[in-house]
Amino acid sequence: MASTVPPAAPETPSSPPPASATGTGVADPAPLGLGAFATTTFVLSCFNANLINAGLAGVVLPLALAFGGLAQLLAGMWEFRNRNTFGATAFTSYGAFWLSYALLARYVAPTLPLATAHQATGLYLLVWAIFTVYMTVAALRVNGAVLGVFVALSMTFILLAAGEFAQSADVAKAGGWVGLITAVIAWYASFAVVTNATWKRSVVPTWPLS
């Protein structure tokens, strides 16, 4: 295993402001969810890519609980209020991913048998890879920025899962690097949505697909 914390990458994307949002009194939660996803993913991916000493990986857990987990979960609830099915599903799911990851890393992983722990971690990452791949299909009707997040995130989960099952540090490291790319794309999407909403016009392109 590349670090003492099970590798993962996280979480999560969004969608364009739904037409119904204007009259609901709820602001578009997408920039919050994307920013939370990007920040937590970037920090963890630095460890997965072996850019920072693995002994410091515990710093990911507070981010996973508070920002990647709780903030993104709240963004998902607000997307339900805005009747945005894609955003609600994505943010709620990846918020739950980060919360479960923090629990896994802190309480479960240390108790697993060393000889076979990689199989459990690989399975955990594999099911998230499957979920992310089918969400990528839905993202084809959102916008280019969000689609980029999901394509990169799918590759991240697949590489990290393969690295765990094969016990290959090099494959897991590649997953870390793709995770860094995922975080940068998500930061861009968050920046675009919040900037366009604040300026009340299209300043930063997101390339709508629907």
Automatic annotation (TrEMBL):
Residues 1-24 are annotated as: Disordered. Keywords: Membrane, Transmembrane, Transmembrane helix. It is a multi-pass membrane protein. The chain crosses the membrane at residues 51-74, 86-109, 121-140, 145-162, 174-194. It comes from Streptantibioticus parmotrematis. The keyword Transmembrane helix applies. Belongs to the acetate uptake transporter (AceTr) (TC 2.A.96) family. This is Acetate uptake transporter. It is found in: Membrane. Residues 7-19 have a biased composition (Pro residues).
